[in-house]
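Deviation from plan, reported transparently: zinc ion complex.
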Amino acid sequence: MSIERKKLTRRQVLKSGIAASTFWAASQMSFKPGGLMAYVPDNPKGERPERDPSIQVLHPRKRIPLSFIIDDSTCLVNMGHYCMPQFAAAWPKREIYKKPWKTWPREIPDSFVREFGEWCHDNKVKGKYSIVPNPACVGWLDRDLPGWSRKDLQDSLKLVRELMMPDWDIHPEMITHTRVIDIKTGRPFEEINAHTMENSFPRKKISVDYLASYLEYALKILKNCDLPCEGITTPGGFGSFVKSELGLASYQSVKRVFNPEIPHYFKYVAGGKESTEPMVEHVKGLKTENPQLVVNIPAGTGDWFGGWDGDLKSQGHKYSNDDATQGRMVELIERGDPAIMLCHWPGMYSQGTLEGYKDFQRVVKALNTRFKDSTQWMKLSTIARYWACKELTERKRKENTLFLNAPFSCPDYTLQTSYGGKAKPVWEYKDQKKPLQLVQKSSELKEGTFLQEGNKTILCIQLPKGKSKLTLA
Ligand SMILES: [Zn+2]
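Because the crystal trials were delayed, the predicted structure below was used instead.
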């Protein structure tokens, strides 16, 4: 294993075209600390408030968050077809880029986006859907997409806004996902090599400012398309040499362009026994009205639905078999960790056979049947909000009263604490006062209810921003 390979992150390996299955098998083996597969989330965490250890924050409504991260999606352009020759030009020795891309469809049609989006909505699936703003340099989504009419492009953007956005966070996956753009001129740099490809950029340390302006450039194009974003996705190994700077640059750029409360980003894949919990990074000014923070949300699976180019055989059983007793998603759910699955859009379409999509449907049906009462599908922004409030809400206890001070509001906020007697919890916020209603099993937990499990009391509230309190009896 060369030094170069050791520095690759999981996603770089996935994106570099090494079969995900091989990669995954490798990741199940043990490695020396700091070796190839170790995913060490060591970005600065920043501030944390006082958190009484006797009050634990559980998953929202005591359900394990599920989500689906879709990379390499955009309007109409099949990134498998268009990226392949550009990757081959930058890495001429790599056999994996010598595939017959000319025989593959150039388009992933909106009829498929519609079918996919409607099916996911009916089956409650939520997640993240990339929109690459200048996909493989084909055209600019806020201007024109050569090869399609202006109306085709407008209709496609409208479909994303109306059908996808309610259930999916939209992220730019940088500007082109292929060539690095000179943001002073808007043109790709002249040389073609690893230094000028987004999925391996930058090859050396660069400043947070420069990185943030690059991300901002991508975000602004989506803003022009009326596609609001609360986060970004890195293409492949983008930012691998500047991990901490990337977190900060994600915060700055998303904040500057869209100003959401809680920016987030997706870059990493946690494997094996590594935690899949999101990480709340670079926290500053927690006591102010507008704290700085960014949530780093890792995926927990490889891409086994057909690969980034849509040319691999789908192996959906690796996420879950048909009765949801085996597979990586099952493993994560059973151990109680967020289970976020990953794929690439060309792999869903599978060059028109829809093989990856059909496999995905089987996986969702299996998970939604066996784990119906113990999981819930969430957008990445909702997961980011939950973890921000899990990590950053001050939690104090004085006898039977819990005092909360939250930097943000949060739906389905679920706490567990021990209490000797029969609790009769009352929630108070400003001049409102509400008793919580007792439910008999955890599947019935929702905002305004509580559950008694032995000497543990589990409470679910709509957490308001600022100070509130819960009195147990
Ligand atoms: Zn990608």
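The longest strand covers residues 410-418. We consider this an acceptable substitute for the interim report.
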